[in-house]
Amino acid sequence: MNNRLFTVVVGCILFFASGLAVCPVQAGGKNLGEWTGRHSRVVWVQDHGDGSDTFGRSDNLMLYGYDSVDGRGERPLVAGKSNYFKPLFTPDGNNVIVSDRLQRKIYLVEWASGKKKELGSGVAVAVWQDPQPGWFFGRKTTWIYCFDGNQKENKYGTSQPLYRFPLNRPHHRELVWDKSDIAWSSLQLSRDGEVIGGLFPWPHGGVLQGDEKSFKRLGRGCWSSLSPDNSKLLWIFDGLHRNVQIHDVRSGDSWMVNISSAPGVRDLEVYHPRWSNHPRYFVLTGPYEKGEGGNRVGGGGENVEVYVGRFDEKVQSVEDWLQLTHNGRADFYPEMWIEGGERENLVRAAETQVLQVEKNHWPVAPEAAVFAWENMKAENQLTADSPLGFYQCNLELRGNALFARDYSLLADGGWGETVDGGKKIGESLAVSGNASVSLVIYPEKKQRASIFSLVGSDGFLLELRQESDQLVLVGRFASQGEQIVVWPAVLDRPGPISVSLTLDGLTAELFIDGKSAGEKVFAAGFGAFSRVDRLVAGDMQGRFSGKISSLAVHNRRLSGGEIEAGHAMVAKKQQPLQEPASLVVEAQLLETTDIPDPDSIGAYRRALVVNSYEVQKVIAGEYKQQKILVAEWAVLDRKIVKQYPEESETERLFLQKFDLHPELEGERQMMDVFEPDLDMYYRLPATELRR
After folding, report:
1. What's the DSSP call for residue 266?
2. In this structure, is the dihedral angle defined by the CA atoms of residues 636, 641, 644 and 646, taken in order, positive or negative?
3. What does R_g of the chain's alpha carbons equal in angstroms?
4. Contact at 8 Å (CB) between 198 and 188?
5. Nearest 5°: phi and psi at 657?
6. DSSP sequence for 322-385
7. Are 487 and 581 in contact (CB under 8 A)?
8. In sequence order, what DSSP letters do the residues of 90-141 get, joined into one string?
9. E strands within 388-531?
C-alpha cells in the first residue's frame, strides 16, 4: 500500500470513528486535488437541524472544510454549532471570512487551527485582493466587502449600504454602494476590481463598473456569479434552478450553460452556484427534491451535497464533475480555493471583442426625469443628477400581465405598477407644478381602457385612457373637481404610437409621434400629486389590450423639440421582431409537475410548470416525436391560473420553442418531468393568441 493510500485510509477510519467527518467517495478514483491537478480547498456550511436552512438563518449550522492534501476528509473547521453565513476564502486560501448573521458580526477563521478572530460588525459578502502592491510596504491589500447598518432586509437581500475594509485594518471602512438594495449571496469582483457583479437587487442581475460605479443591467434571475479573472463574464441563475445564462459584459454576448448534469444530481434542482478563484471551476449544492410545490430549494434535505464542476476552455459547457461530499446532511454555501487559480485566465478573454455601443440618451432631459422604464431588459435608471437622485425604475406585473418577446409590457388582463417609487414621483410633481408623460403604446383594438395613471389611496388622480380612437385625459383634483379633455381620432392605427403629454396646471398638450395634436384647457391641481402612491401602466381592471414601452415622466414641461427628439430615439429602436414559427398540436396531458402554492415560491410572483403531453395530431408546423415537453403558466401575480383535469382530455396547444422567448429568462419554473431528449416548448397564453 503506497503512502498516499495509507494516509487516506487511516484518515477515513479516524474521522468515521470520531463522527465528525467522512472521507468522500472519489469520482473516477480521484480526490479533489488529483482531479484539479492542484492543491484545493472547499469550505461550506452544514445544517445540523432539519436540513432546510438553505439560506443560512439559524444557529444549527457548522462550518465545514475539505483539503485535498491533508488526508483528513470532510471536517468541522470550528467545533460547535452557531450561525455561519456565506464563508469566503482569503486569496491565499489559509483563512476563511465568515459571518454570524444573527449577531451581525464578521470573523476570520484560521484554516489550520480553527481559531476565530472578530473583525467587526456586519455581514461579509465578498473578498478581493488589490493586484497593485501598496506604496509603503509593497504588499497587496486584501479587502473585505460587507453590508452593515439598520436598514430593512429579508432572506433575499438588504437595503444596508455596501462597505469595504482592509483585512488588516477592519475598523477602516469605505462606502462602496448605497444607491439600491443588493442580494446577499451574489456579490463578486473581477480580478482588476473594475467590475462588481451581483443582483441590484433580486431579480435584476448586472454589474457596477468603473470608479463611478455605473450600473449595467444584464438580465433577470438569481444567484449571479462573476468570473474571477478579467474576462468579465457574469452568470445569472435561471428560474428552473438548472442553468446559468452567462453574459459577456464587454462584448454583449450571452449563452446558456446547463449546470444540473452531475451524475448524482440527475437533472434536478441545484443551488448556491459560485465561481471558484479559478475561472474554469465552480461549486454548487444539490439535488433539491425534498421540498413541496415550488419550494424545492427551501426543503433542503439530507441528500444535498457539494459538487464541483469544470467548464471547458471557453465556458460553453461543463466538461466534468466531481461530487465532493457524501455525509447524509444538508450542505450549503460552498466556496472553493485552488492554488494558483488567481493567475489563470479564460481563453475566451483574449478573443473577446469589446462591443462598441452607441450611448443611449433615452430619455431626453434626464436631469428632469422622475421615472424612466424603457423595457424589462433596459437599464431603467435615473442618473445621480435627476430630481430623485440615482434610482432604478421597475414595473411590477399585476393581474395576468406579462412581458412580451420584445421586452415591452404586455398588459392584456393586467397592468404594471411601481413598487416603491410612486410617492417620490408624486411629491416631485407637486413641488414643480409641471409634468410631462411619454410612452409608446401598441393598442390592439378599439377599446375603453386606461393606459397610464397616477393613483393615490383614494383612487385615480390623473388618468390617460383610450376610448375607441380617442385619447381622454381625466384629472380628479379636490380643488378643481374632475377635469376631462378629449383628443379625437388620434389612435387610428395599431401602433407603435408614441404618445406624449405635457401639463402646466392650466393646459394640457398632446403629442402623437412627436407632433402636437393640440393644446386643451386643463386645470391640474398639482398639490394633489403629493397623495400619489403608485404609477400604473395599463388598466387596473385588465381592460387594455396591447403593449406599453418607453414610459418616462418628467417634473417639467418638455419642449416640442425635446418631445420630437424623444420620439426619434424610440422610433429608431423599434425594429419589429420576426415572429417565431408556431406549432399547433392536439395532445393529451401525460406527466405533470405539481402546481405550486403561491406562498411556496418565495419572492417570485409568477411560476411556470413543465408538463409532458402525448401528441395526437399536428395541426400546424412540424413535429415528429410522440411526446412533447411544454412549459405553461401556473401562477400569475400569486394566483393559481391553471388546473389539471381529473381525466385526461385532448387539448389544442399553441406552442413556440421556449428558447425563442427571452422574456422568460429568470421566471420561476418547476419541472418534475424528466425528458432530457425533448426540446421544451412554451404554451402561448390566451393574451398572446389574441394578438
Report:
1. T
2. positive
3. 27
4. yes
5. -55, 135
6. EE---SSS-EEEEEEEETTGGG---HHHHHPPPP-PPP--PSSSGGGEEEEE--TTS--EE-TT
7. no
8. -TTSSEEEEEETTTTEEEEEETTT--EEEEEESEEEEEEEEEEEPTTT-PEE
9. 391-392, 396-399, 402-403, 409-410, 414-417, 435-443, 447-456, 459-468, 470-477, 481-487, 497-503, 507-512, 515-521
pLDDT at 688: 65
What distance lies between CA 57 and its chain's CA centroid?
21
User: Is residue 469 a contact partner of residue 488, using CB atoms and an 8 Å limit?
Assistant: yes
| Phi and psi angles of residue 18, each rounded to the nearest 5 degrees, phi first | -75, -20
pLDDT value of position 361? 80
The grid cell for 506 is 392650466
At 481, the pLDDT band (50, 70, 90 cuts) reads confident
Distances in whole angstroms, Cα of residue 152 to Cα of each of 56, 105, 207, 262:
18, 17, 22, 38
pLDDT at 14 over 50: no
Spacing of C-alpha 232 from chain mean position = 18
Instruction: Tell me which residue of 582, 585, 629, 583 sits closest to 608, measured CA to CA.
Output: 629
Per the CB < 8 A criterion, the answer to whether 295 and 601 are in contact is yes
DSSP class per residue in 600-657: GSTT-S-EEEEEEEEEEEEEES----SEEEEEEEEEETTEE-----SS--EEEEEEEE
Residue 199: closest CA among 215, 211, 214, 212: 215
Strand partners, 240: none
pLDDT in tens, 294-318: 678 989 999 999 999 999 999 999 9
Closest CA to 462 of 377, 525, 369, 380: 525
SS3 453: strand
Looking at the DSSP bridge assignments, the partners of residue 318 are 311
In sequence order, which ranges of 19-114 are alpha helices (DSSP H)? 32-36
Position 215: which residue type?
F
- CB-CB contact of 491 with 517 (8 Å): no
The set of cell numbers assigned to 662 is 427571452
Amino acid at 669: Q
Cell of residue 327, nine digits: 455525509
Q: What is the pLDDT of residues 371-387, one digit of tens each?
A: 999 999 999 999 889 99
Coarse DSSP helix, strand, coil percentages of the chain, rounded to the nearest 5 percent: 10, 45, 45
Q: Which letter does DSSP use for residue 241 in this model? A: S
Identify the CA nearest to 552 among candidates 377, 380, 423, 410.
380
Ordered by where they begin, the domains of the chain are 3-342 (2.120.10.30), 366-573 (2.60.120.200), 583-689 (2.40.50)
Q: Are the beta carbons of 68 and 62 closer than 8 angstroms?
A: no
| CB-CB neighbours of 494 under 10 Å | 12
Closest to 318 in 3D by CA, of 243, 224, 239, 237:
243
The span from the CA of 76 to the CA of 561, in Å, is 68
CA distance 105 to 500: 51
Burial class from Cβ neighbours inside 10 Å (0-12, 13-18, 19+) for residue 211 reads: exposed
Identity of the residue numbered 537: A
